[in-house]
Amino acid sequence: MERITSLQNPTIKNLRKLEKASERREQNLILIEGLREIVLAKRAGYKINSLFLCEELFKESKEYRLSELTKPGDTTLATKISTEVYRSLAYRDSTEGIIATAIPQKLNLDNLVFGKNPLILVIEAVEKPGNLGAMLRTCDAAGVDAIIITDAKTDLFNPNVIRSSVGTVFTNHIAVCETEQAIDFLREKGIATYAAELEATKFHYEQDFKFAAAIIVGTEATGLSKEWLNAAEQKIKIPMLGEIDSLNVSVSAGILLFEAVRQRAKA
Predict the structure, then answer these.
(1) CATH annotation of 3-103
(2) Residues 6+ apart with CB under 8 A from 117
């Protein structure tokens, strides 16, 4: 296996380019750091294009094994890299010593598959990778059937999104589209829409989420667009008892989703 020790190696310089969304689109590649994240991507059907392994830092776990990525007959290219090279690429302070490139999947509405009574989270105009990653983790924990991201301001495959989602960007069923497309899609599927809004008159725990439902959250700064507020069948709010009248959007999404989970568990 080849070993790269130079920071100026063309392959390493190209990996750094993948930090930019424009380069990821042009090369049709994404950068994944961490064994768990890479294995989850592999299990989700993502084609792992290449692996870069730092033997001095590499750590394996019982749940996620390197052997899942290097099975006989696999065409994945594997390269050893020095500690210095690895740290020049890594995002995390505590790291496992492995990075991969992979081919992204098409995340269209037509690819979403769910049952008759789905629970869906719609995220409009999300800007901060950390918030998006946190919501993906919440959706994985809540067993959400699908996530629809509309008018996104950050790339789903931003390395910070992958990192903050701890790989759940690969475990969730996700579609990325424009708001109008999502509204039409949900209407066609007969899925009720509930928009989170500070000025709503109905509290989230008063709403029945036991049937096919899509919960819609917007940005902390401006909330949801008029398109979503006008399209939603019901506006809902979370009780605010303090001096500040808004929550972090990922926290709000968690509260709303787990209220739905609670109701469905009792149904």
Answers:
(1) 3.30.1330.30
(2) 210, 211, 212
Q: Is the pLDDT of residue 114 over 70?
A: yes
Separation of alpha carbons 117 and 136, rounded Å? 20
Mean pLDDT of 24-46: 96
**What average pLDDT does range 135-146 have in this prediction?**
98
Neighbours of 92 (CB within 10 A): 10
User: Are the C-beta atoms of residues 116 and 142 closer than 8 Å to each other?
Assistant: no
Calculate the alpha carbon distances from 49 to 92, 160, 230, 241 in Å: 21, 20, 44, 50
Q: DSSP code of 151?
A: S
pTM across the whole model: 0.94
- Structurally, at CATH architecture level, domain 109-266 sits in 3-Layer(aba) Sandwich (3.40)
What is the model's pLDDT at position 71?
Answer: 73
Residue ranges per structural domain of the chain:
3-103, 109-266
